[in-house]
């Protein structure tokens, strides 16, 4: 049989031309759309030359060149925005083109020699694609870590500004919300796409974990921005209320349902009891949702095991009703309970602070409850759990 390596070296340019054309036609490789010829093939000629060298008997042990060029190819594909499925797909197309171009040479040997040659080509290509994917994933992780680091710095800076009560906090928070929403949106789309393709390709679960961290951190930062805006509004001017008839159970159910996935991620039981709740009350629906959202969010955040319970009920002999949010979390000691509703106050030492906490949630709850002519009671014991109970009038006074 002819020397396949030398035959491949003679046909490198021809194979690359055919390969680029086939890749452009492949509907499963969307990332080539709009790329120039040079951008599509990038350094693949070097990869192909290294493959040809390994197929040449005299140089069969020289693998360093293939590794170097394959790693470079993976890095370029990561920079161009390819996903792992597309990288695998383009190597599959390359294999088919190589075998088609070498078919005349394969026919010069016996069947056994041809099969052995095909196995050798497959083995070398497998090594090339795995090294390309390895570097591809490394590059994508680095990019994601850079974005994550930028989000962390933004998070820290926002917290510092909020704590120092600078006048431009509200403006800054508004300016941050638009790009942050874009980061969360596009990261969520990328995450869904990668999850769909993981079952079909050699997609990296580690890469998806990094994307998930971006999405989660982005959502935490957005929640902090919203809290900063709310506390800033409350401090500058009294809030206005939109009083209307509100059906209690559907509203509370909607908020609790929204936190079910978060509770499941921590293996927490999240329950709701509205058996004794009033059918409807006269209140501000949006403000009521804010109260419940902050209380349930806090309960889940500070509970590592056990359950979070939400209970609504009418208070007998009084023109009021109550929402109680109980957890089996860390609890709050008696000294901290005296300050827990103060803005920016956080329970525990600085080393124990959760990264997503700014100490604004309960301050917002307290302000809104006062605006609604209600009150908040706290019953808590460190290491056992906490119960926050909000009492509100059935009708505004």
Sequence-ordered SSE layout with sheet pairings:
Elements: H1 4-10, H2 12-25, H3 37-41, H4 44-55, H5 64-80, H6 84-106, H7 111-164, H8 169-198, H9 205-236, E1 244-247, H10 248-265, E2 269-276, E3 280-283, H11 285-301, E4 307-315, E5 320-327, H12 334-337, H13 361-371, E6 375-381, E7 385-393
Parallel strand pairs: 2-4
Antiparallel strand pairs: 1-3, 4-5, 5-7, 6-7
Number of strands: 7
- Uncertain segments are none
Label the overall shape: elongated
The percent of residues in helical segments reads: 55-70%
Summarize the structure.
The chain has 397 residues and is α+β, with helices and mostly antiparallel strands. The protein has helices at 4-10, 12-25, 37-41, 44-55, 64-80, 84-106, 111-164, 169-198, 205-236, 248-265, 285-301, 334-337, 361-371; strands spanning 244-247, 269-276, 280-283, 307-315, 320-327, 375-381, 385-393.
Provide structural commentary.
This protein is α+β, with helices and mostly antiparallel strands and 397 residues long. Helix content is 61%, strand content 12%. It has 13 helices and seven strands. The chain has helices spanning 4-10, 12-25, 37-41, 44-55, 64-80, 84-106, 111-164, 169-198, 205-236, 248-265, 285-301, 334-337, 361-371, and strands at residues 244-247, 269-276, 280-283, 307-315, 320-327, 375-381, 385-393. Strands 2-4-5-7-6 form a five-stranded mixed beta sheet, with helices on one face. Strands 1-3 form a two-stranded antiparallel sheet. α9 (205-236) crosses α13 (361-371). The N and C termini lie far apart (97 Å). The model has no long low-confidence stretch (mean pLDDT 76).
